[in-house]
Amino acid sequence: MASVDTHLRRIAALADEKLDERSGSSPEDHEYRAALEAMRALGGESAVDRFADDLKRSIRKSETLPQEQSVRSLGRDICEREGYDIPDDSWFAR
């Protein structure tokens, strides 16, 4: 299981590899850290790993960095699939 920092580095490396300069800002600018940490709070390290894998799969497929609403939606899908309750104050509840 990788840490949030490790996942961010891997996502940034994938973005550098797959996306051209016109694709936008870095993963850190898209609040990915907040999303990964929120997922860890809801489901632990294995949930973070699944979430990061989904983010990377989305980047490969669309060749863009998912925007905030898409990231939130990916996270909510994982929570629903795994049975994690999303509290009202969670990053994914917004």
What does this structure look like?
The chain has helices at 4-18, 32-62, 68-82. With 94 residues, the chain is mostly helical. The termini are far apart. The mean pLDDT is 88.
Short note summarizing the structure:
The chain has 94 residues and is an all-alpha fold.
How would you describe this structure in keywords?
94 residues, mainly alpha, 3 helices
Distance between the termini: 27 Å
Strand element count: 0
Low-confidence stretches: none
| SS element count, helices | 3
Helical percentage: 55-70%
Strand fraction: under 5%
Helix vs. strand class: mainly alpha
Q: Using only CA atoms, what is the Rg?
A: 12 Å
Estimate the global geometry from the Cα principal axes: globular
Largest sheet descriptor: none
What is the residue-mean pLDDT, rounded to a whole number? 88
What is the H-and-E element order?
HHH
SSE inventory with pairings:
Layout lengths: L3 H15 L13 H31 L5 H15 L12
